[in-house]
Write a structure and sequence with these properties.
About 30% of the residues lie in helices and about 25% in strands. It is built from 6 helices and 12 strands. α1 crosses α4. The radius of gyration is 21 Å and the shape is globular.
Length: about 260
């Protein structure tokens, strides 16, 4: 049986906060102390706050530009602004580079952790030291998805937990060998935890218990899920891909005309 619950009582997180100590204490006070095999799922927002990623920004759009390495797609909004899907310095493809302007002081924005896998490792090792329990950590943020309306939480950092569940090479119920079935386990953990954390209840940490996924080694982290450019079939938005193809066609035609005898 798989169980999941939110950890209450954390309160507002200040820069420099000892998150492992706060989470361990809050879980114990709530009567649900951490135990061996638990996966602690933590919203990136409180990780960023503890790591001092709250920065002054007169313009959120400038902050998004600074956090992006390329624009995948952009579309005008009804309010006159621009929605931008970008690739972040971490390799994630997401709206607004994860730059968050909600629930922060005016004139400030909150950036994603610099190294989410490193943040997860620090959290996991701190929690293990504080509780004596063999736990794993997943750090999450909210993403939209191609082809689907609505958002869901996905993992952006992980440590001491299996990132994937690889079924390749095993037989299915009919005896046929599976060739492409690799479950993004930490993303499923992120989504499951979000059901009990919610978006507006002020519960940024959840515990998932009953899944045999915690490891003795730190593991590959979420970086193993980031698809490289060579294998990315959806590298550009539809309008952007069309424009690039059109420009390439014009260039090829011009070159052919120059080469013609």
């Amino acid at each position: 049986m798989l169980t999941a619950w939110a950890v209450p009582g954390l309160g507002e997180i200040a820069p420099g906060a000892d998150l492992p100590a706060l989470i361990a204490a809050a879980a114990a006070t709530a009567g649900t102390p951490l135990a061996d095999g638990d996966v602690v799922v933590v919203a990136s927002k409180i990780v960023s706050k503890a790591e001092g990623r709250l920065v002054t920004a007169a313009d959120r759009e400038d902050a998004i530009t600074a956090e992006a390495v390329r624009v995948v797609a952009s579309r005008p909004r009804k309010d006159g602004g621009l929605t931008r899907i970008v690739q972040t310095t971490h390799g994630f493809v997401m709206a607004a580079a994860g730059v968050d302007g909600s629930n922060v002081p005016a004139g400030h924005v909150l950036l994603l952790p610099v190294d989410p896998d490193g943040s997860a490792r620090s959290l996991a090792e701190g929690l293990r030291a504080a509780t004596g329990s063999r736990v794993g950590v997943v750090v999450t943020d909210t993403f939209g998805r191609p082809w689907r309306n609505g958002q869901t939480d996905l993992a952006i950092g992980a440590a001491y937990v299996d990132v994937t569940d690889d079924h390749r090479g095993t037989p299915d119920a009919q005896g046929r060998t599976l060739e492409v079935s690799v479950t993004a386990l930490v993303d499923e953990l992120a989504a499951a935890a979000d059901l009990v954390k919610g978006k507006v209840r002020g519960l940024p940490v959840a515990v998932v218990r009953g899944l045999d996924a915690v490891t003795d080694e730190v593991g590959t982290g979420v970086r193993a899920l980031v698809r490289d450019a060579e294998h990315d079939m959806f590298r550009w938005g539809s309008d952007e891909a069309y424009a690039r193809g059109f420009d390439a066609g014009l260039a090829a035609a011009a070159h052919a005309e120059e080469e013609a005898p």
